[in-house]
Amino acid sequence: MITEILLLDHTTGRNIIWANGSDAKREIQPAQIELIKPRWQKVRAHQKQRTRDRAEIFTPPEVCRIQNDLFDNPRRSWADYVDAKFLEVTCGEAPYLVSRYNAVTGEPIPLDKRVGLLDRKLRVVGTETKIVGDWIDYALRAVKSVYGYEFQGDNLYLARRNVFETVVEYFAAKFPHRSDKPPENFWTDIAEIISWNLWQMDGLTCSPPFHDNANLFGGMNCRIMNWATGKPFEFVELVREARR
Asked: How many other CB atoms are there within 10 angstroms of residue 17's CB atom?
């Protein structure tokens, strides 16, 4: 169930597509996720090819930390800190949002050493809450506050999975006893939020890969969720507003 949700494309109403290689326009199916490997596990020739084709170069965690420190502002209430919105453009496997492993080497990173923006938020949630219900409320708010888009479908699935597993790991660290359990729908709710907040998009057109917005019949703008209203809207609206 979680895998199916993490493969959804809410703009097209189908699954996200590979967007690379010979199957570029084909949807990724749940049975195919075992084929998806993080960049550090790909052979060097494949890494170089993707760098040439899509300028794919992943950022080491020490650089993510330095840059995230520039955006991080702890001088606000902790609840406002949890709600502060961030967008990782061309997010790859989302190392600026969550740093479960070194995106270059694959080396796992302990929870207390992680530098992602959602990592920081969830650590604050863990510090400021005591009971499961409060943790869940603020964890949901934290996940709703982070966004990212990516062209290549395998990267996007890994980004979504990394965000999901990050929430799992922080919950387990905060509540190690089996008696502390979230509601049954909590994990599907988290996956649903992630499937909206991390989406597949060509950043040059604000449309899904291979959709030509200059074509009246082929155009399609990517849709994301406004969690305050509970209604989706087109991402290009934010771009237009920023240019005014």
From this structure: 21
Percentage helix, strand, coil, to 5, in the chain? 45, 10, 40
CA 73 to CA 225: how far, in whole Å? 25
| Nearest to 224, CA basis, from 152, 164, 144 | 144
Q: Tell me the per-residue pLDDT of 16-32, one tens digit each, with 9 for 90 and over.
A: 999 988 889 999 999 99
Nearest to 143 by CA among 182, 184, 192: 192
3-state secondary structure of 149: strand
* Nearest alpha carbon to residue 82 among 164, 133, 146, 134: 146
Give tens-digit pLDDT for 152-208: 999 999 999 999 999 999 999 999 987 788 998 999 999 999 999 999 999 999 999
What's the predicted TM-score (pTM) here?
0.92
* Amino acid at the residue 212: D
Choose among 50, 15, 5: nearest CA to 209.
15
